[in-house]
Amino acid sequence: MDRGTVLLPAETSVRQEARGGRCDRSAAGLPTSPHVTIDPQRNRLPGLGKLVTEFNTASVAAPERFGLFAETTNRSHMRNRLRSDDQDDFRARIRSVELGELQISTMSLSHLEVTRTAKLIRQSDPEVYLLNYFQRQEGVLSLAGADTALREGDLVLMDSSRPYRGGVRATGDGWSHVTVQFARRLLPLPERTVQHLLNVPINGLHGMGGVFTRWLTDLNTRVGEFTPDDVPTLASVTLDLLASTVARCLEAEEALSPETRRIALRARINTYIEQHLADPDLTPQTIADAHHISLRHLQQLLAEDDTSPAAWLRHRRLERCRFDLADPRLNAHPIRAVAARWGFTDAAHFSRLFRSAYGIPPRDYRDLPPGARVNRQHTCAI
Questions:
Q1: Is the separation of the CB atoms in 148 and 201 below 8 Å?
Q2: Rounded distance, CA 249 to CA 182, Å?
Q3: Span 36-82, pLDDT tens digits
Q4: Cα distances (Å, whole numbers) of residue 365 to 94, 125, 204, 324, 376
Q5: Is the pTM of this model over 0.90?
C-alpha cells in the first residue's frame, strides 16, 4: 500500500494478510494479530482522486480503534511505537492531503505517546522532516535527552533519522494537530543548519509562523475546493512558507532563493491585507509602508500575478462583500452596511464596482439562488 493510501474503517474484513503486505504490529507496540484490510477508494473525497483521504476510528468497535490507528499511521507516515491513555476506546480522525512529495495531515485525537527508536530507524527511514503544528494540543518532546515543552500554537521540526519520543494531549475540541511531512531535500536550507532547530519551539501565532499556520488551517478548511491540477501550486506555496518560517527562526533568510523570499513576502502581504480589509484607510502605500518596501516594489510584486495593489485590494474587498451577500444569515443587513463593513464608504461607488466585477447589481446578486452565484466568482477584478 502506498504512502497516499489510508485505511477506511467503514467496510472492514478481518484477514491474515493485508493487500500490499503485512504491517509489523509488534514494531508499533501492538499485539500481533490478524489485521484489517480495507478498500481505500471508499475513503476518498468525491472528485479529488488521490488528493485527499479521510480516516476515522469511530467506524469500528472500541477495542479495534487504537490498533487500527497505529497500523494506519505506520503505513501513511512512518513506523513508531505508540501508546495512549485512551487505548481501550481511542477516538481519532485524520484528514491527509497528498501534494506530491509533501503530505499534510490534520488530526484530532485526545492523547498519544510516540517513540521512534534507533532500531526502527535502521529498519526503515523515509529521510523526511516533519513539521508539527500544535493547533489545540500541548505536550513534551524529547530529542537527544533534552525535553522540550510545547504549547498550543507552537510549531516544532523533527527529523525521521533522529530518535525521539514525546507525549501530546488535546487542549480543546476539533482538529488538534497538523503534521507536514516532506523529503529533506525539499527544504532549501543546509541540513547542518536545520539541525540546530530540531525540537525547538517556533511561534505559530505571530510573524512568519502565524502566516504559515493560517495557511495550513485555511488549506484544511478549503480542501474540498481543490483539484489535482492545484497540487503543484499548493505544494510550492506550502514549502516556500515553511522554508521562510524555518529560516526566520534560524536568522538565515539569506540562504533562501530570491523566488522563495518573493513568495513569502507576497504571502505576508496577502495576510496583512486580509486582516485590514475593513479599514477604509488601507491603501497600496500603507501596505508598502507596513512591509518596509517601496510602492514601486509592491507594484512589481503584484504585477507578476497580473494585477496591481489597488486592484487586488478592491478585489478582496468585493469578494468579502460577495460572500456576505450570499449569506442568508446576513439578509437583514442593508447592502450599504455590508459595503461599509469591508471598507467601501460610498454605497453608490460600491454598487458600480460590484456590477462591473460580477455583471449584476449587489441587490440582484443577493436574490440569486445559490447555484446561480457560482458562475459569477471572478478570480480578480482589475
A1: yes
A2: 19
A3: 333 343 344 444 456 899 999 999 999 999 999 999 998 888 899 99
A4: 37, 55, 38, 11, 9
A5: no
